[in-house]
Amino acid sequence: MCGTTLGGFSALEAVSAGLCNPFSANRDGINIGEAAAVFLLTAEDAPVRLLGVGESSDAHHVSAPDPEGHGALAAMRAALDDAGLTPSDIAYVNLHGTATALNDSMEGKAVHALFGDATPCSSTKAMTGHTLGAAGACEAAFLWLTLNPAHNPDGRLPPHLWDGAPDPEIPPLNLIGPGATFSGGLPAGPAAMLSNSFAFGGSNVALVLGRGDRR
After folding, report:
1. Higher per-residue confidence, 202 vs 47
2. What is the pTM of this model?
3. Strand ranges of the sheet holding 48-57, from the earlier edge strand across to the other edge
């Protein structure tokens, strides 16, 4: 792992002293992790499909996101539009959820504005750390594994691991614990999920993946 990367985030006071704690009132920064994921996109039938992509730019600050989450919301809406879906079609949202004060606050506002407090959500960074350039692919892989019946016949959802102390300044989200499933198990029919990835400079991307039997 590159020492310059660690030093840079430490200089921003963005690295947690312990395990990261996404969306908690006690969050104090990220854990830096390492990961890699590779996807092969083809026109052939497959258990999981890429249904939609949405991108936006905050044009707000070199490192801080728009505090109201307008860019994040625009990216999620664009991904749903690209997929031809509505928020009610999304069974689960993989949050960017870095456990920094500004990111979690703005993402909570954006996700709540679009999905309310019922759609199951979690940040997997409490399990992997923030893998930086690999984070988007790593978290898309969580969606792929969750949606694939061969890998997840029970419909288990990635858990949100934290101290359970919600920040009263963040609108409520349905942050799910270990053992949660959606719809009582993996549905026999279609299902779709969304993953958020945000970056310095206000770059926002949302992906929608769905089961391959979606019509």
Report:
1. 47
2. 0.90
3. 48-57, 203-211, 192-199, 90-94, 120-122, 174-175
